[in-house]
Each structure stands twice: as C-alpha cells, then as structure tokens.
Amino acid sequence: MIEYVASKQKPVIISTGIATEEDISLALEACYRMGNRDIALLKCTSSYPAPIEEANLIMVQDLANRFDVISGLSDHTLGSTAPVVATVFGGKIIEKHFILDRSIGGPDASFSMNEEEFAQMVKAVREAEKAIGQVDYRLTEKQAKGKDFSRSLYIVEDVNEGELATEKNIRSIRPGFGMHPKHLNEVLNKKFNANFKKGTRLDFGCLE
What we know:
The protein is an alpha/beta fold.
C-alpha cells in the first residue's frame, strides 16, 4: 500500500503510531523504491486520548534529523500544549481531531477540538513559530534602545580635583550612558583630574 501511494509522486504523510524504528525505515524504503522522497513523518502516541506525559515530543526533532524528512505531530492529547511544543521542536505538520459539536458523539468526540479550540490552537502555534526566532546575539532595535535603561558608572557626589574615586562617590546606576560597570574596579582609587558635579557620567577622561 505504501508503495502504491508513493508511486503517485505526491507528498506522503506517514503517522508513526506504534511503528518501531525498523518499521519506519521499511516504510521509507518502500517510498524510495517508487522514486518518492517527498515524505513527512508524524510522531504519534497511539492512545485515545493520549496522556501528555507520554507525548515524547522530542521525537519530532529526532525524526527529522534521523530520517532527513519533514516531521510533525499526529496528536491525540487534550488541548494545544503538545502542538505548540512540537512546533518548537521543528514540527511542520499538526494533525488534530476536529468535531463540529461534541454532542454528536463518537469514539473521538472526547479528545477532538471544536471550532473555537482549533482556532485557538492555530493562533498558539503561529505565535510559537514567531517566538522561536534564530540564534543571533546582536540586539534588536528595541533591545538596543532598552540598553539606555541598563546600569553604568556615574559620579554620585560632588567631587574635587585630586579626590580619590571610591564606592561612595562612584556607583553603578541607571541610565546606561556612562562607563560599563565592568570598569568599576579599574577606576576605584584613581584621582579625579578636575571638579565634577553629582550626576556626571563617568569615563576615563575624568581620571588621572
């Protein structure tokens, strides 16, 4: 059956369910024999509903890395937590049971989402995608502006030329326009080279 589906040269989505690693490999090989490598594997816990503690969602990431496929989640847990976490682990496909009205009944009714719940899940998944971001230690424009509210070294008492810089007249306070606090030990016990008023931002030019 897998060979027949793969032979249509359409994208193939396979839910792993109770499959072992060997089973998954065999299914993929069946697709490859048909020349089809456009395959997605969905992590699935075959329990209805599935306990959240058995979701094992790190497998979403491992499926993609181990088998070089798109991965996702075939979800039977209650709520949106599992789909959101699966998204964080790189899941690109979320399969969730849907029902218009639970009063209709049926074996899946208890763990199926209604329209409102499904919409909330989609919103949460999209927000998770945005929140993931990328590895980048540079500050965003907003973060850079926020640096103005970080701490830096300021003169906090009026001081005279020749007076020593001490922890009494130099402090690390907001805003962040003065010297970096990492220089505190370097400037302590150095002499001021002029008179300075309280509130002056400190820099090495203030010291001998």
